[in-house]
Automatic annotation (TrEMBL):
Residue ranges of every copy of the FMN hydroxy acid dehydrogenase domain listed in the record: 4-366
Species, as recorded: Actinoalloteichus caeruleus DSM 43889
InterPro entries, per database record: Aldolase_TIM (IPR013785), Alpha-hydoxy_acid_DH_FMN (IPR012133), FMN-dep_DH (IPR000262), FMN_HAD (IPR037396), FMN_hydac_DH_AS (IPR008259)
Xref: Pfam families: FMN_dh
Keyword Flavoprotein in record: yes
Annotated protein name in UniProt: 4-hydroxymandelate oxidase
Family: Belongs to the FMN-dependent alpha-hydroxy acid dehydrogenase family.
CC cofactor: FMN
SUPFAM superfamilies named in the record: FMN-linked oxidoreductases
Keywords associated with the record: Flavoprotein, FMN, Oxidoreductase
Superkingdom: Bacteria
Length: 368
């Protein structure tokens, strides 16, 4: 199938095909790949496909309201852009282009610790920013990043807790993947001689770099310290066990993100559509529950709302849009998502997102 031009894309799969036709194979693999045998990567999609939402009829509605409040941030959709590293790999403007698109379409943009543009640069786009933190060995740098996030006007802090070490991603290992010298982790001040830029056969330079930078000993005491140190609402990303979600609530988190890192960490972790209802049941109204991993369209957003999520984080589709056509490509992705979400809500008989949260669901016992 010939890849459509991004502005002619009719769904997010079209955008992915357009991006794949433009990218170098090793960069495409870096974005698309998962860890291990990629079982969890595949299971995320299969579990969403196996989740059926029961529409309501005779509701008499002719329009729907997609606006949301996510962790206190106003949004036109129940969606935020997920934290994703090194976006200048996909387009010269990288995170700047994606954040401008998010600002134009009224959704929060999450700045990664491994962003190739600084939080200060991204604040100038006018986007509603959240800042994502990896727990670093350099505690002074952790504190510096917290201060920079607050000073830049970020509206939430997202701590990622499922990466004590980076999962072994076979595609990157086979490719001997390394960052080009033009792309760096702007917040970590890495130059072209850093480990992330030194490619070796049978190794991922990005994994080598994070092994040196990340502290795998992150624990509950650290989370408690972080809650006391940072004034921003705290979002804990990478939660799958309901017991962990409940403890996050007890420690003062404002939200948890049910996430398996898009299938890029523990291969064998449950798909998020399966873990989500259990987490929602465990925390009740104590914290907001968001979800990511595998969201590929508006009907997926309705699925996770019906399963109890407040909203979703959108990952790879944003990167495909960025690769395909920069800011215009990301804007196209968000516009398609909005169109699909509006139609899905109308077809399900929902006047707003609260109605979607009351829809019944059933799940095929064999998602394959």
């Amino acid at each position: 199938m010939t890849a459509p031009r991004p502005r002619e894309a009719v769904d997010l799969a079209d955008v992915e095909r357009a991006a794949a036709a433009l990218l170098a194979p090793e960069v495409r693999d870096f974005v698309a790949g998962g860890s291990g045998m990629e079982r969890t990567l595949a299971a995320n999609r299969a579990a969403l496909d196996a989740t059926h939402v029961v529409p309501r009829v005779l509701t008499g509605i002719d329009s729907t309201d997609t606006s949301a409040s996510l962790v206190g941030t106003a949004a036109r959709l129940p969606v935020a852009v997920a934290p994703m590293a090194y976006q200048c790999l996909l387009h010269p403007e990288g995170e700047l282009a994606a954040a401008r698109a998010a600002a134009a379409r009224g959704v929060p943009f999450t700045v990664s610790t491994l962003s190739s543009r600084t939080v200060e640069e991204l604040a100038e786009t006018g986007a509603a920013l959240w800042f994502q933190l990896y727990w670093l060995r350099d505690r002074g740098l952790v504190e510096e990043l917290l201060d920079r996030a607050e000073d830049a006007g970020c509206q939430a802090l997202v701590i990622t807790v499922d990466v004590p070490v980076m999962g072994r991603r076979a595609r990157d290992v086979r490719n001997g993947f390394a960052l080009p010298s033009s792309v760096r982790a702007a917040h970590l001040d890495t130059g072209p001689t850093s480990h992330a830029h030194v490619g070796r056969a049978g190794s991922s330079a990005v994994a080598d770099h994070t092994a040196l930078a990340f502290d795998p000993t992150l624990g509950w005491r650290d989370l408690e310290w972080l809650r006391g140190r940072c004034r921003l609402p705290l979002v804990v990303k990478g939660v799958l066990d309901p017991r962990d979600a409940a403890r996050c609530a007890d420690l003062g988190a404002s939200a948890v993100v049910v996430s398996n890192h898009g299938g890029r960490q523990f291969d064998g972790a449950p798909p998020t559509a399966v873990a989500l209802p259990r987490v929602v049941e465990a925390v009740g109204d104590a914290v907001e529950v968001l979800v990511d991993s595998g969201i590929r369209g508006g009907s997926d957003v309705v699925r996770v709302l019906a399963l109890g999520a407040r909203g979703a984080l959108l990952g790879r589709p944003v990167l495909w849009g960025l690769a395909a056509d920069g800011q215009r490509g990301v804007t196209r992705v968000l516009d398609l998502l909005r169109l699909e979400l509006e139609q899905a809500l109308l077809l399900a008989g929902c006047a707003d997102l609260a109605d979607a949260g009351r829809l019944a669901t059933y799940v095929r016992s064999d998602p394959s």
